[in-house]
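User: I'm curious whether this sequence folds into something compact or stays loose and floppy. Could you predict its structure so I can see for myself?
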Amino acid sequence: MRGVQENMAPSANVCDFLTCLESYGEADAITSKYNGSWRKHSYVELVQTIHTLSSKLSDEYVNRTNMVVVGDNSYEWIVAFLAITLSGNTAVPIDKELADSEILRQIGSSGCKTLFYSSSICDLIEQNHELLSHVRNIVRLDDSEKKLPTPHFVSFYDYIGKQEKRFDYERHIIADDIASLIVFTSGTTEAAKGVMLSEKNVFSAVNSALEYITASGTGISVLPLNHTYGLSCTMVMLKLKMHIILNDKVKNFAKNTKEFKPTTIVLVPIYVEKIFKSITTKLKQEKKLSLVTRMIGISNFLRRLKIDVRRKLFKQIIAQFGGELELMVCGGAPLYTEYVEFFHAIGINLTNGYGITECAPFVSVNPIGKTKYGSVGSVLSCCQVHIQKESEGNDGEIWVSGDNVMIGYFNDPERTKNAMDGDWFKTGDLGRLDKDGYLYISGRSKNTIVLKNGKNVQPEEIEEKIKRNPLVEEVVVYCSGNDVISLEYYSPSGEIIDIKNLIESVNRELPLYAQIGNVSFRSSPFAKTATQKIKRDQINFQGGQQGD
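Assistant: Here's the prediction. I'll summarize afterward.
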């Protein structure tokens, strides 16, 4: 299914993109929270502020330089990113959730000359100003009454000035081998790498995603803008003339959906999982789960007769999200088929896809109306996928080539060389393609458990089965001594739960060599990346009391 605007011209670069946004005039573009109050910004205001900041940056820096943006999601964050790109400089978004030492390390290694930061990390930035002497301008993005420590610290609106300016698009330099964006990955198995992406990389992915995504109205995003998935989804929504609500806090997500009544929510699987479990838990408490299950069966039968009454039948469930929700876009980690089927059954499209930072990040999307359960969708037009097989069978490593594939890793030619095979980027993920070109993910090659007998076990496949139990919030499968497949889980209740029957049921679905032999409970959640994927390289297995 094609995007909401069939004749929408692709944006080859940021100039095309801003020209499109400016044509939307006074329509609402972005709403974000400032000091406890929501503030709304129109498309024309957004583009004008970008022009003014871009002119300022262009006047100050004759040669391209790196500029860091770190902090909370905000209107000013988006302005800063697009203005840096338009001015011909390189944006370096950094995750504010990293350890203080890592934030400072990434700022230092970026060699940035300008730093934009939010007040949520002002203590870190301002108390370490002596370490930032190489940074010419340090700009606080949001309002704060706290005094700035030195003259080269300045507030956002003082920095850009009150006089509106227009940046001459003729001055914008575009080159396929120049990075407009450097994103430090928050990998689950190794140290962060600086991924260099060109404008061509970014906009080819955005344009291709728009071929499959149909959306309009209001969208709420809970994704961090420093992550390519969150950033690119924001650009897709802006191109679709949507009104974007930047969710302020995780705990306010439910309240914000009821207040703003979104038609679209952009999120990661852990949110989908929590929404699903909250719905089913409530239905169980109200003793309505069996009724809803029967209603889904009736609804599915009627749909085969071309009668669709889902949004009427399940109106009360949809009302929990404001009553207007039509689409949830999910990426960043594997999504369980059970969730996709459930939300489709109650009248909410849940579309997922596959992406990786090195591919800007979109590689595939499940088309709305043509979803294949279990897959991560159809490969986008901006790229090609090859399955590199090392042995017999359908699965192999996923390789990607195309306009969305990165330039390379920042200051790391050796890693770049190891990651590429000619024009093909080796993702490290395992999967297969079906006859229709739909992609299926089976795991991560670096997570594959290789037993002494030569058998391979994909831990993600077992973890998906274990998380059928709504009381299991997080789980990691690994190999302990003597080739024993082990499992450690975390329950939000903080209490050991009886999962003996679940383990027995899962083991019946597994070959003998992959069956779970040891189960332990952990008292605290696993460490996670910005998109809520568990950091496997940082796991200290607690090996607590067994829950079976």
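Summary: Residues 1-7, 544-548 have pLDDT under 50 and may be disordered. The chain has three domains: 14-173, 243-381+401-422, 448-538.
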